[in-house]
Amino acid sequence: MKKAKAKTGTTKKSRTRKLSVKSLLTIAQLNAQDVELILDTAGQLKANARRGKTETALRGKVLAAIFEKSSTRTRVSFEAGMYQLGGIMLYLAGRDLQLGRGESLSDTARVLSRYVSGIIIRTDAHRKVVELAKAATVPVINALTDYAHPCQVLADLLTLRERFGKLKRLRLAYVGDSNNVTRSLVFGTAKTGIELAIASPLGFEIDKHAIELSESDRRKSGVGLYLTMDPMQAVANADAVYTDVWVSMGQEKEHAQRIRALKKYQINEKLMARAAPRAIFLHCLPAHRGQEVTEDVIDGKQSVVFEQAENRLHVQKAILKLLLEKGK
Length: 328
Ligand code: CP
Ligand code: NVA
Description:
Layout: H1 2-8, H2 32-50, E1 62-67, H3 73-84, E2 88-93, H4 105-115, E3 118-122, H5 126-135, E4 140-142, H6 150-164, E5 171-175, H7 180-192, E6 195-199, H8 208-221, E7 225-228, H9 231-235, E8 240-243, H10 255-262, H11 269-272, E9 280-283, H12 295-298, H13 305-324
Parallel strand pairs: 1-2, 1-3, 3-4, 5-6, 5-8, 6-7, 8-9
Helix pairs in contact: 2-6, 2-13, 3-13, 4-5, 6-7, 6-13, 7-8
Bound molecules: phosphoric acid mono(formamide)ester (CP) and norvaline.
């Protein structure tokens, strides 16, 4: 150990920290140090941006961005972030690519890997992202699938850390439809030691498999996951209350049935009053005022939804820098 230090002139701590993964598909695949590294790097990039520092880490690099679903935040923050790091992003609507006419994901991945330094993809089935990453020789980043939304939840963790100065032992309540964002919250809170309570109605609960995947992290960090059908119970004394839309992209046909099933799961002032006095309100956006959240809550003093949205930019810049900087 001493010898190595003398040779390289660096200690373990001062050496550049690296992610343990080549691609970012779900938070479940990261380790706790990866999450910490992404948040630390994002915090640094945010502070640098505030000071007007020019970043050049990705100078000359190109990111291919395949979108098979709509997006405002993810698309714009990835594109702005890439530019701010010295590179560019190519927006590729799925239907305009040969992918839309049946070219395989694997051939698309192999071709794009010859042109660009990284690929992001927003699509429906999670297996598509997995297939793309398997065939690509460059890093692939999940920009949302029906299964997971890792970039969103990493930005949420940054927001919580900035607000409370720590993550360990915070109490987060999620109320509503158990979806891609919820699943990523299950993984992200387990990695960072946040206690999570989820309130969803029958038929809209989080899947057992996601819970099982997060169990060893939760045991390590010593915090619980509580599942209930009662929103009041979930938010009792919570430091943060989170919700998402009741009808996710691709579920439009189930609109009426979902609104009916979830109507008692709205975040309103009465529910927020059950949370801790300094509790914050989180929503990944886009929001439907009057459905999953009332206007007075989302536009009220406890709401940090626009900080959350801004943090998408800083976190994604961190992910891009960490995954793409050393690549081709
Ligand atoms: N939160 C989020 O991913 O927003 P967009 O759908 O606008 O990208
Ligand atoms: N659950 C939502 C998140 C949108 C950012 C959806 O998948 O449509």
